[in-house]
Design the sequence.
């Protein structure tokens, strides 16, 4: 391929990408990889098109190549970290966010990205340290306070987490996600009525979603409002049919508070949603002692749900089979 053909094909890929024709753009640019190995701008376009087409490894490879031929292009470090984090590769992303924070020690947002990356990678102590480094540059930074609060909660430092959430809310009172995460922390602290109020504030600020309603339902249930919990679990299922936590919550409510008549249907949906997990079976086995009538009424057999998993925790699968 000559230079004119290469430029023409790159331009075509760029136009296709800009037109939203991701697969065609990738088809146009993919064969050019070996011809652009020393061209940073072409590699940037290649990475952009690859990412748009869902080719995460190809995009990451191109970005890593730029890092070897250019001297610390900070925007590429951030782009690669963001790409890997979006793909769920949080450990790899954290290495790059750490590198970026070292390149920009006075940039609070660089420390924020490192804190977020560490929290997502399951490294709360690193997240706390990164947030503190950012707060040293920008005291009162609402997002840094919110991420620090999440990391403190993950580290089991609940009282400190609640204080950090309160500071984050004071700095940015209209951020719905911070209000929601504060509500989750309040629930973990056993402050159920305050948690419910915080969930309500989150909703007024525009937050919604299946997980949001499932979290709110759990707090409502623990505050003693069974009907309210059912309503929010059903909203979770309306927004995401088969939502596992909502099905689990409704199963628990039917068994513990409503005599169990509808529990089997929720339970069946829960097992079918998570066929490899032993948790639904554990939950159901615990209920069998008081509710053996379900098995007779529904002629329930374990293989009727075509469930298969290796972890027969404490022989519960055998207990269910014996009970039926």
Sequence:
């Amino acid at each position: 391929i000559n230079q004119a053909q290469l430029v023409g094909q790159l331009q075509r890929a760029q136009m296709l990408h800009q037109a939203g024709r991701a697969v065609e753009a990738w088809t146009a640019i993919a064969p050019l990889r070996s011809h652009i190995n020393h061209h940073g701008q072409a590699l940037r376009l290649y990475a952009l098109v690859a990412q748009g087409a869902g080719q995460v490894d190809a995009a990451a490879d191109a970005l890593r190549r730029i890092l070897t031929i250019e001297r610390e292009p900070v925007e590429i470090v951030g782009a690669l970290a963001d790409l890997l984090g979006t793909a769920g590769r949080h450990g790899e992303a954290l290495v790059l966010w750490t590198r970026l924070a070292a390149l920009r020690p006075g940039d609070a947002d660089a420390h924020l990205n490192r804190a977020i990356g560490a929290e997502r990678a399951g490294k709360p102590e690193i997240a706390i340290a990164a947030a503190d480094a950012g707060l040293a540059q920008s005291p009162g930074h609402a997002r840094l306070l919110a991420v620090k609060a999440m990391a403190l909660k993950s580290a089991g430092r609940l009282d400190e987490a609640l204080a950090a959430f309160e500071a984050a809310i004071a700095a940015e009172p209209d951020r719905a996600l911070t209000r929601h995460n504060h509500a989750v922390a309040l629930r973990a602290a056993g402050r159920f009525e305050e948690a419910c109020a915080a969930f309500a504030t989150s909703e007024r600020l525009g937050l919604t979603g299946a997980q949001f309603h499932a979290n709110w339902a759990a707090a409502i249930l623990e505050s003693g409002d069974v009907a309210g919990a059912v309503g929010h679990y059903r909203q979770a299922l309306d927004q995401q049919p088969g939502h596992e936590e909502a099905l689990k919550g409704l199963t628990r409510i039917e068994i513990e508070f409503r005599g169990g008549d509808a529990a089997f249907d929720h339970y069946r949906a829960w097992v079918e949603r998570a066929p490899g997990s032993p948790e639904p079976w554990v939950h159901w086995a615990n209920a069998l002692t008081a509710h053996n009538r379900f098995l007779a009424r529904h002629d329930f057999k374990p293989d009727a749900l075509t469930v298969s998993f290796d972890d027969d925790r404490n022989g519960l699968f055998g207990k269910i089979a014996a009970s039926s």
About this structure: The chain has 19 helices and no strands. Residues 289-324 have pLDDT under 50 and may be disordered. The radius of gyration is 25 Å. The first helix runs from residue 3 to 18.
